[in-house]
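Try this one yourself first.
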């Protein structure tokens, strides 16, 4: 198609999760409750870690940052979805779509590295306990966090640099409630096979390789503990099961969306709901409900705040 036939698209229309108004009201209530729960759950973890000195350790530092990223991940899409379900107008500007994709991959890349850092933290804590505080020093934790954001930034820029100037000449409807590269590329007026391959090579293979790296690392930790003491194996398994659950919940949808060659809209939308509304709720729940120190710290912080209110 000639360059002159390309039309400049200034906005995209989200088809959303359903076209039926009664269903949209149900989804509106579900999304609102989910987002409120995400806000309360994740910021409870962040504030508890900040306010309680007993949790000023590498594991809880990384966990608080994971909760913050999960909250940002949901905030990127869910409020826009709630607004669209309420008003019936699901429109996003071209610049807004680009921004959404940029932040989505920034946070996604950052969370991948953060999960690897958390696996490394558990390896040191379980397999090298005498050197734990030396290896996982505050400086190391800060370097891991900065590295996660830098790698996330590089990953996001590397994705968008190839697609930000794509030409569009047809439909501007996205059959979802948020912008992402596979759907964005499909609307372009070019042969998108090469672009889709680049997206798969970048996001899909990185997700798959990181997922297997994490699973192998957890197996190695358990095998090391099993050789040392059978009694310690159950304790290590209990600790790592929460991490493995979070890894599966995060990487499962990513791998399916970017590597499955025959995407289906209902499955994609279900995975999107899982990614943006379910997983950010389960992450703090998994870590807090299974963690005695976190539960005790939350009660302690709650009492302190209530005491301050009663004194004032």
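Now uncover the answer:
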């Amino acid at each position: 198609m000639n360059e002159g036939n390309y039309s400049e698209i200034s906005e995209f229309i989200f088809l959303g999760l359903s076209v039926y108004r009664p269903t949209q009201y149900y989804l509106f209530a579900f999304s609102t409750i989910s987002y409120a729960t995400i806000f309360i759950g994740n910021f409870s973890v962040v504030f508890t870690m900040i306010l309680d000195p007993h949790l000023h350790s590498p594991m809880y530092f990384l966990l608080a940052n994971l909760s913050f990223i999960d909250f940002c991940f949901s905030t990127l899409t869910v409020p826009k979805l709630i607004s669209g379900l309420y008003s019936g107008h699901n429109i996003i500007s071209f610049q807004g779509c680009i921004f959404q994709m940029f932040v989505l991959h920034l946070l996604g890349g950052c969370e991948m590295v953060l999960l690897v850092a958390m696996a490394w933290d558990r390896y040191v804590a379980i397999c090298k306990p005498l050197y734990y505080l030396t290896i996982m020093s505050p400086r190391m934790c800060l370097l891991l966090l900065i590295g996660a954001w830098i790698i996330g930034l590089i990953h996001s820029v590397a994705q968008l640099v190839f697609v930000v100037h794509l030409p569009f000449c047809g439909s501007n409807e996205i059959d979802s409630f948020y912008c992402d590269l596979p759907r964005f590329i499909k609307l372009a007026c070019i042969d998108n096979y090469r672009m889709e391959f680049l997206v798969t090579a970048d996001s899909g293979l990185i997700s798959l390789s990181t997922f297997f790296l994490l699973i192998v690392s957890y197996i190695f930790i358990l095998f090391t503990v099993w050789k040392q003491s059978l009694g310690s194996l159950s304790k290590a398994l209990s600790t790592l099961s929460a991490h493995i659950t979070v890894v599966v919940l995060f990487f499962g949808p990513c791998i399916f969306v970017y590597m499955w060659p025959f995407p289906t809209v209902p499955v994609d939308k279900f995975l999107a709901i899982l990614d943006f509304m379910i997983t950010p709720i389960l992450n703090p729940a998994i870590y807090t409900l299974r963690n005695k120190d976190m539960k005790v710290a939350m009660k302690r912080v709650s009492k302190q705040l209530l005491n301050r209110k009663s004194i004032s």
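Discussion: Residues 1-6 have pLDDT under 50 and may be disordered. The domain at 8-306 is CATH 1.20.1070.10 (Rhopdopsin 7-helix transmembrane proteins).
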